[in-house]
Amino acid sequence: MKTRVISGVLTTLLIVPMVVAQVPQGPRLNPPNTESYSPAIQNPYAPAASTIPARLVPKIIPPPPPRLPATVFKPGFQQFLPDMSRSIRPLVRTDEGTRDERAVDPIGGDPLSTNIVIGGGLLDPADLGPPNCDTGQLNYGTGLDSCSSSSCGGCWFATTSGLLMRRSDDDKLWVSFDQGDGSYHLLTTRHAELDLGGGFETRIGYAFCDGIYAVEGVYWGIFPGMQEANGYGANTVGGIATTILGLSNLTYDAGLGQQALTVFFNGAERHRIQRTSEFHNVEMNVLANTCVNPCCDTNLRIGWLAGFRYMRYDDGFTYSTEPNEIPFDGDPEELHYDIGCENNLIGFQVGGRVDYCMTCALSGFIGAKFGVYGNHISHRSVIVGSNGFAIINDAASPFNGRDFNVNSNVNNVSFLGEIDLGLDYQISRCWSATMGYRAVAATGVAHATRQVIRDDTGTDLNWVGDVNKNGSLILHGAFAGLEFCY
User: Fold this and answer.
1) Which domains are delineated in the chain?
2) pTM (2 decimals)?
């Protein structure tokens, strides 16, 4: 009996360690898997040749978030992380069926993984390096990611656009009437109202590698064609006449001696108005983004600018008469009252822009600029024909015998503002399109039509040279163009 007990104890001591050595440590999550591991079964999206172990969780990098064009004033960069919601669930086949072996966050239930699949391999997020244009982490420049190859992320951007704008007209000036019907406005400055004028805009800039600041240079110009209106004596009851009474004390010699200008204007065959305008704008601005993460991870972008601006506005007005025939062909009796004003505004401006991303490719924007400017105005008034200038013929005037040929300059303070409203559309990685509406308004400018002599002021050359500089200007219309980032 004692011998049997001793034998049983020895047998137990030998067998139990062997059995325990074959039992896996810890709880068993799955029944034994009799099939060999196959990546294609685990993840149908993984390459067939992949050797990724079953315990690793494949992840896919989503496309970089949409970025706005460089002109948004918001370089900055967005935080670039894998989208956990789009990860692929790895599956494990077992004897009991297919199970989800993914590690899960015990609080939120989201998958936990730091592995990122690029192609068919693994990459740690830290290996992506600092944000730059190549990884698409900079907001400055256009495209889902920029074309820049700079390691620090600096981006050049350039824009070219077509402009189609109209100038709002100033006060209407009545210059010719029917002597048989004094109330009939035969010819006014509105009859030669400035039409839509075409032009272009170009800008080039650079966003620094910190992605926060940028600089840009801008030029745009509008070049409307000359507008013309005519009044004909044959279309009147009592003949055509001028309303500019200040011409009565001025004379001109067309070959028959000095005669009052009213002889050439009243009873003429034809009166003509010609008007011209031209606009040139140059800017140098510093752009900046006011957002910092996580603000810039929203669809709303806010930026500001500051810089210098120069704008030139030229305005011309010519009132002509042909006493004896219809065509203007340079005859000595033809007279031209010509006025030109050149406004040169230069000063400092500030502004901002707000963009809202509506889709991954489409965004809307509104921008505004405002500044105080010094306006240097050059003015010229002249009445001339092919035989020379008209002269002052008034013995009581200190300017008696002088040519009516006045040049003057004056300085003024002007205010200038601009507003842009439009849409940006991302065409490709480096190209975007933009279109919208622009309005530019200025005060304290000189218009040519406001320098026309009144009553007997034509004999006072000091009055003629005293520029009326209290005009206002509104220029508005459409723009459309392309931007390229490199």
Assistant:
1) 33-62+81-130 (no CATH), 155-485 (2.40.128.100)
2) 0.70
